[in-house]
Structures are given as structure tokens and as C-alpha cells.
Amino acid sequence: MTILFLITAVVILASAVMVVSSRNLVHAALWLVSALFGVAVLYALLDAGFMAVVQVVIYIGAIAILFIFAVMLTRREMRDTGPGLNKNWWVSAVMSILTFGGLAYLLSSWSGFSQTSADIPVGFDAVTALGEALISPDAFVLPFEVASVMLVAALVGAVYIAFNPRIGDTRK
Amino acid sequence: MNFWKDPIQVTADWLMSLFTGWGMAEGLANILINLLGIVILITIMLVIDILLVWIERKVVARFQDRLGPNRVGPFGLIQPFADIIKLFIKENITPVGVDKVVYNLAPILSVFSVLILWAIIPLAPQILGVDLNVGLLYLVAAGAIGTLSIIMAGWSSNNKFALLGAFRQVAAMISYEIPMVVALLIPTVLAGTMGMLGISQAQQGMWYVFLSPLGALIFLISAVAELGRAPFDLSEGESEVVAGFHIEYSGMKFGWFYAGELLHAFTFGGFWGILFFGGYHFFGLENWGPLVAAAIVLFKALIGYWVIMWIKYTLMRIRIDHMLAFNWKFLVPLSLVVLMVTALLNTILRDASTWILGLSMFLSNALIAWITIEILRSRSRKERENAEGLAQPTMEAAQH
User: Fold this and answer.
1) CA–CA distance, B382 with B388 (Å, rounded to integer)
2) Are B57 and B65 in contact, with CB atoms under 8 Å apart?
3) What DSSP designation does B236 have?
4) Residue A146: its pLDDT value, please?
């Protein structure tokens, strides 16, 4: 398990570095797919099969494909020619080191960091538990419904932006 | 334990005693046995794939009133092997300007996205790779990887036709994923699980095609669109984009796409059989042993594959705007209505007997189908009247 985790972590980190350093935008998107797939593998290693599959469906099947579509349809030249860094690079370097250091410090002082996970009881179905939590009133039904309403609003907004009343009925 | 009762477990136990007898650690032996199982399953699927080439060519020939391959071996059975040798010895062309890594990765991912589906197909209660409790979502996730392989092939080929074909195909696959997911939810609601084995077992009394014929039909249509076969094979088109995303592939690289497509069709036939036609249940025949059950599943997969071929070689390619309108304005609302009615009836009739549940489900599906057809008829009548009303004055003007 530990070996698998280390391999996956190395793949994710290397892919993440390639996402930001790759000159070709489509290559960057494909490296992003590789990093997201690695995260799905991490979920699978944590016995969260549902999260792993949903990660692949949503992040690779929808978001990454849309990224690639957007990149292909908006840029004629898919190669970045300018320098990879601008003069503010040291600010972001300091910020990322601080963030990493802060997170590492927080996690090292967290009591759960060194604990091993409890065994999953036999017959426990994580998907059923998740589904019941999403619709039970004393758990997450309100956030779940709010998220659905937000998605519907986004859909209506997209239709409104895309709909051109002057063209209107395209059949004529 | 008898070999005929549980062949996989018996073989695995025998191999385990053999390997540990050689002095191998138990953990390592376990990994080795699992790897061996994966390799054997993939090999069997790819050998079936070779025969699928022959089946496809023979069936299309019959649909087109021809004989098909009949020269090499009895009934032309050795023809696919000759084809494969031809594909292997062809020159492996990599066109100038392609993105080499992505170009070579795309056919591998294409076949990979199909082969991983066989991990969750329960050939028999005892013969299955893994019983995931999110099996149906896994099916959708594998489809996502297939979509990715197509867009990778289209983009890396550095060819306008390939890219256009990939765009069309991916647009179709993404939009038809929605009715497919909704149709997949119908067996989930009926069986109360997303696991393929649970869905198979739940159909012991009644196949889901009787409970939800519309669900089976929607799943079949969206599966054909997901496969990119006719009438949804927009990525091909001899007069517009030639062969679509695999236009620049030759030799065995094209062979992988072709093999992947055939095996994908066969696999979706299998899923159709498992989700709606009872899986390994066939009038008690499955009790004869797991090998008979596996044969039943493969037989149902072949029937499903034949139906997909029947559709492919009978219907013509439809235009992309028609295809997207058919999906968004017809299939998605219909599938949502069917799902809601199914879920509602399933909850109301939870304590009723199987026959009452089956009958009411079937009748509700028939009612939905009738209402849908009536709505479509009135709409088409209105459109026809509109079109005739518009056409009338111009005809008069032409006469004067």
C-alpha cells in the first residue's frame, strides 16, 4: 500500500509540475488529466471507491475534456512562445513555500496525522451511507439542494447567454 | 470443493498451493495469481475480439445480401487471422507533424477503456473480476477514458479531418452520456444497488426489460451513440471528414481502434444483457454451473451485439443537429420521466408482489410511450401545417 501511495504521489506531483511548465497547452491539459487520475487512484487506495469513480467521471470525463475543447477552439497557435516566468516569480515562490510550510506544520501538530484508519466493518456500504446522508434532513440535505439550485441557475444562465433572440427560431 | 462448482476459486487455490510449495511468499503468490487472472481474462476477450471481426463481416454481408468472407477456412473462419497477420506486417507509418507520444497513446487508451469494463462484468456468481458497489458509475468512468482517447487521437494526428471527426464524436458522446446515466439509474432503482452482481441477482424473478422496456430502449440508443456506430457515426463520412479521428492511423494502430470498437459494441451488448435481460439467468439453466452461466452471459452479449449491428447496417447516418436535438429535446426528458415514474412506482409498490409490480411498471411504461408518441404526432402535424402554409403562397406565385 505504501509503495503504491508513493508511486501515485510521485506521478501526481510530476504531472502537476508538467502542467505548469509544459509549453504546449494541450499537453498541459493532458498532464492535468494524469494528475487528476492520480488523485482518483489515491481515493481508491483510501477505500473510497465512489469518490474515485466520480473523480474520473467528472474531472476527466467532463472538466478536462472541456478544457481541451476550449483550448483547441480558442487558440490558433497552441504553443506558448513567451518566457515561462515573469518578474514576480519570487513572490509566488515565497507564497507557495509559506503555504506548504504552514500546512505541513498544521498537519504535524494534528493528532489524527499519525493514527491508522479504523477497519471498515463487514457489510458497510459507503455508497448507501453517502446517499442517505445527502437526503436526510439532519445531515446534508440543505447544502445538497442549494448546490442543485445553483447548478440549475448556471444552466439557465448559460442558455440565456447562448440564446440569441434575433436568430430565435433556427428552423426558419 | 468441486471444480465445476467454482472453477476460479479452485484454480486459484491450486495455484496458491503450487506457488507456496515452491517457497514463494503468500502475498507475492496472491499478487501473481491475480495478475494471471487479469492476463487470462484480457487474452480471452481479445481472442473473442478476433472472432468478432468474422462475425461482423459475416452479418453485414447477410444484411447487404452478400456472402461475406467464405474462402479461407470453413465459412471463412480463418479470414480474421489472415487480416491480423496483414495488419501486423503493414508498415507502421507515423506521419510528419504528429504529436508522437499522444498519437501512440490514443489507440492503447481506446482499447484499455473497453478492456477495463470486463473487470466488473459478472459472467457467473463465482466468475467475476470484482464486485464494485459503484459498478455502473465505473462504466461511465470507463466511457470518459474512451472519450479522452478519441480526442487525443484527433488532436495529435495533426489533421483537420481527424480533429473535426473527433469533435463531432466527442460532442455526441458527451451529450448521450446523460440519457445513458439516467437509463443506468433505472436498474439501480429497481435492484437497490449499483453493483453488477447485485443487479444480476435481483433479476432472478423478472428481467428488467419487462419492468422497464423504455429504459432498455434508451440505454440501447445511448449505447449506440456512445459507441459511435451508425446511425450516430458522425466521425466518419466519406465525403466530409473521411474516417474521422483515426484517419492518420495505419497498420496495427488502426487495428487497435477497430478491435476496440468491435469489442466495445460486444461489451455494451453484454451490459444490455446484464442490466435488462437477466444477466446469467436463463430459465434456471444457470443452475447447471458457473461455466454454463458464463456461456449464457456471452450468448446474451452476442445477441445484444447482433442488435447493435442490425441497427448499424439498417439505418442511415443522421445529421449532427438532428442528433443533438434528438438527444436534448427527446431522449433526456423521456429518460427523466421514465426514471421518475419508475422510482415512484417502485416506492409505492414496495410491498406488493412481483407480478403486480411488474404489471404496473410495464403498463406505466406503455402509457409513457403512448403519450410520447401522441405528443410527437401532434407536434409533427403542427410543423407540417406550418410548412405547408409557408409553401402554399410560393407555389401560387410560381404558377402566375
Assistant:
1) 10
2) no
3) -
4) 93
Searching chain A, which residue's CA lies closest to the CA of residue B105? Answer: A30
Q: Model confidence over B83-125: pLDDT tens digits?
A: 888 888 888 888 887 888 888 888 998 899 899 888 888 888 8
* CB-based contact, A56 to chain B, within 8 Å: yes
Contacts of A65 in chain B (CB under 8 A): 144, 147-148, 151, 170, 174
Could you give the maximum distance between any two Cα atoms of chain A, in Å?
68
Closest residue in B to A73 (Cα) is B167
CA distance B53 to B79: 9
Query: By residue range, what is the domain housing residue A38?
Result: 1-78
ipTM for the predicted complex comes to 0.78
> What would the mean pLDDT of B234-260 be, rounded to a whole number?
80
Q: How many domains does chain A have?
A: 2
- The answer to whether residue B176 neighbours chain A at the CB level (below 8 Å) is no
- Closest CB from B133, B140, B151 relative to A57: B140
For residue range B128-183, list pLDDT tens digits in order. Answer: 878 888 888 888 888 888 888 888 888 888 888 888 888 888 888 888 888 999 99
- Confirm whether A110 is domain-assigned: no
Closest by CA to B278, choosing from B256, B260, B301, is B301
Q: Nine-digit cell at A81?
A: 512562445
A143 inside 8 A of chain B by CB: no
User: What is the nearest CA distance from B220 to chain A, expressed in angstroms?
Assistant: 20
Residue B380 has which C-alpha cell?
Answer: 409533427
Q: DSSP character for A137?
A: T
Query: Which residues are within 8 A (CB) of B49 and not within 5 positions of it... i.e. 6 or more apart?
Result: B259, B262, B263, B266
All cell numbers assigned to A139? 445531515
Last residue of a domain, one of A14, A46, A78: A78
What pLDDT shows up at residue B400? 54
Question: CB-CB: which of A26, A60, A68 is closest to B144?
Answer: A60
CA distance A101 to B54: 61
Region class of A122: left (phi > 0), else alpha (psi between -120 and 50), else beta = beta
pTM (whole model) above 0.90: no
| Residue among B133, B155, B177 minimizing CB distance to A49 | B133
DSSP reduced 3-state for B352 = coil
Domain-located, residue A122: no
What distance separates the 2 farthest-apart alpha carbons in chain B? 100
The per-residue DSSP string of A6-44 comes to: HHHHHHHHHHHHHHHH-SBHHHHHHHHHHHHHHHHHHHH
Contacts of A6 (CB under 8 A, 6+ apart): none
Handedness of CA A130, A131, A132, A133 (dihedral sign): positive
Across chain A, which has 172 residues, the per-10-residue mean pLDDT values are 87 90 82 90 86 87 81 66 76 92 86 72 77 84 91 91 68 46
